Amino acid sequence: MSFCQTVKGELCRKTLKKECCQQAFLYAVLRLSRSFLWDGTIVTTENRGAAQKIARDLAGVCGAFVSISADYRYVKDHPLVYTVFIEDTEEKEELARRFSLQNEGIASSFLAKECCVQAFLKGAFLAFGQVTDPEKEYHLEMGAPGDVCAGEMCRLLEKAGFFFKISNRKRFPILYLKDSEQIADFLTYLGAAKAAMQIMDIKVLKTVRNQLNRQVNCETANLKKTTFAAADQMRCIRYLEAHGGLSALGKELETLARLRLENEDASLRELAAMLDPPVSYSAVNRRLKKIIEMAVQKGAKLR
Ligand SMILES: [Zn+2]
Predict the structure, then answer these.
(1) Could you write out the DSSP letters of every residue in 65-83?
(2) At what angle do helices 48-62 and 114-128 cross, to 10 degrees?
(3) Are residues 134 and 79 in the same domain?
(4) CA of 227 to the centre of ligand 1 (A)
(5) Whether residues 19 and 161 fall in one domain
(6) What contacts 103, CB < 8 A, 6 or more positions away?
(7) C-beta separation of 130 from 44 below 8 A
(8) Are 229 and 188 found together in one domain?
(9) Ligand 1 centre and the CA of 139: distance in Å?
(10) How far is the CA of 20 from the centre of ligand 1 (A)?
(11) Nearest-CA neighbor of 136 among 183, 229, 203, 231?
């Protein structure tokens, strides 16, 4: 089972007890759906548990007649996809009225209490979220139906202490996190504490693995001198980001800085290979040194 399926399974097992939270959960699912107002399709997901939970809650709380279909995608070895939808037009319109879906933004009336904000975000992640296997990459994302919603979600998340960024994929905004600790904290906040712990365990393992690698890499004294610790690089890049932004670095350095931010554990050789087009190890080293110099000039402190 994928890591994302495990996370969603853990979230589905916890039921929302208060009525205010159940409303907020369902509000997220309907409000953030890209197609519900259009054709009654609420969500399409590979997660059977999530599909069932959404359908069950909608039926239980709103008395709606909800259907689920399971289809194969025409891709080899692809898991089944479940579509949750409401066929009856009147019922669809009734739900749209009840949850004021004609308004573009997120209605604060459903999010009056902190418990409801949490339930809303749980709905958003369960229906429209993904998290990548932390062994591969630290990445968590949630889709939004439009820029207004995406912006308001970002502010909501910020208030709860989570700093998502927004990008676009196939015309739709995506909110995402790349920081392992933020991802783990967010999953804990949603109620998937076990999965969050798994991320931190894997992070520790990766760090140990990296330290071993680094030791091997740093055998030569002269290499030692030129290699800045990744932590120093990260600190300097974050500092630059906060003081004037990375675009001031120029395209070449900015690209590398962002790559480093997204790949905290990568070695310089790995970073060099990831660049498009790839460059030499020494070019990456030279560029990182330059970034650090610029940060220090601007007032960043190394350890
Ligand atoms: Zn509540």
Answers:
(1) --EEEEE--SSTTPPPEEE
(2) 130
(3) yes
(4) 51
(5) yes
(6) none
(7) no
(8) no
(9) 28
(10) 4
(11) 203
The pair of three-digit structure tokens given for residue 14, joined into one six-digit string: 């916890």
Beta-carbon count within 10 A of 68 CB = 16
Domain of 40, CATH number, reads: 3.10.28.10
* Shared domain check, 239 and 164: no
Name the phi and psi angles at 111, rounded to 5: -120, 35
231 CB neighbour count, 10 Å cutoff: 11
Question: How far, in Å, is the centroid of ligand 1 from the Cα of 128?
Answer: 20
Ligand 1 centre and the CA of 58: distance in Å?
A: 16
Residue 23 is predicted with a pLDDT of 95
User: Is 42:87 a contact under the CB 8 Å cutoff?
Assistant: no
Residue pair 98/92 in contact (Cβ under 8 Å)? The answer is no
- In the reported structure, the alpha carbon of residue 33 is separated from the centroid of ligand 1 by a whole-number distance in angstroms of 21
- Give the Å distance between the CA of 14 and the centre of ligand 1: 14
**Alpha-carbon span 100 to 107, nearest angstrom:** 8
Q: Give the residue ranges of the chain where pLDDT is below 70.
A: 74-76, 218-228, 303
Say what the pLDDT of residue 222 is. 45
186 C-alpha to ligand 1 centroid (Å): 18
19 Cα: distance to centroid of ligand 1 (angstroms): 7
Give pLDDT, residue 225: 47
For residue 163, give the 3-state DSSP assignment: coil
Same domain membership, residue 170 and residue 32:
yes
CA 119 to CA 126: how far, in whole Å? Answer: 10
- Summarised one tens digit per residue, pLDDT across range 154-177 is 999 999 999 999 999 988 999 999
pLDDT for res 75:
64
Give per-residue pLDDT as tens, 10-43: 999 999 999 999 999 999 999 999 999 999 999 9
Name the residue range of residue 14's domain.
Answer: 3-195
Query: For residues 282 and 22, what is the distance between their CA atoms, to the nearest angstrom?
Result: 55
